[in-house]
Amino acid sequence: MFKTHAAVATILAALVLSACGGDASPASPTPTPTPTPTPTTFILSGTVASTTGPVIPGATVRIADGPNVGRSTTTNSNGSYSFATLTASSFTLTTSAAYYVTKEQGVTLTSTQTVNVELVPVPLFTRSGSGNTVFDMPTSVTRVRIQADYGGFCQNFIASIGGRTVVNIIMGTCSVADVRNHYDAIALTVGGIVSITNSSGISWSFTEVR
To answer: How far apart are CA 193 and CA 137, in angstroms?
Structure first.
């Protein structure tokens, strides 16, 4: 009778262990996914100024190549510019402004940086001479001061720019009451071919006004 009870107890213990999964292998842990790294970005800022000293408002600063290509901004009234969230890289920074020579410079951006830019002014256009002639005026010239002098007797002074007549007067001493030895005026223009005709002996000058 004792052996029968012992056998029953052994069987019951085995059933309990089996129900509880006592001899099952432990489950493998679920691997933690590796997070995608957030791209590191930086700020590029600075000031654009003339080599002669003053800052340049309204200058265009542009990234010409690399992963940030096409990004551009304009300097404020203090000549300052700023790019945010730029990808670390090497690229060409192009800076331009009216009446200044465009500048290209290489930048290697590996941290937030300050890059100041100096632009060289384009010299004022000027041309002087005497009598009839033809010459070319840059299309960047929008206003020009025209001066002429003549001390002789009644001579035409005719000048055209880009096919448009801007001066057509008579200079010199034509009578006691009609004397014009000097001419000085500013003309609006878009540049082009300057032609001075019928103006023998007249000294003249053309100077860009900005």
So the answer is: 6
Tell me, yes or no, whether 143 lies in a domain. yes
From CA 44, how far away is CA 86, in angstroms rounded?
A: 7
Return the CATH number at 204.
Answer: 2.60.120
Q: Which two tokens mark 198?
A: 């019928």
Structural domain of 135: 126-208
Question: Is residue 103 domain-shared with residue 45, that is, in the same domain?
Answer: yes
The low-confidence residues of the chain, meaning pLDDT below 70, are 1-28, 35-39, 176
Question: What is the per-residue pLDDT across 10-23, written as a single tens digit (0 to 9) for each?
Answer: 544 454 445 455 45
Tell me the C-alpha distance between 102 and 60, whole Å: 10
Q: Which H or E element spans position 15?
A: helix 2-19
- Return the bridge partners of 118, or none: 49
**What is the model's pTM?**
0.67
191 and 139 Cβ atoms separated by less than 8 Å: yes
Q: Which two tokens stand for residue 157?
A: 């002074």
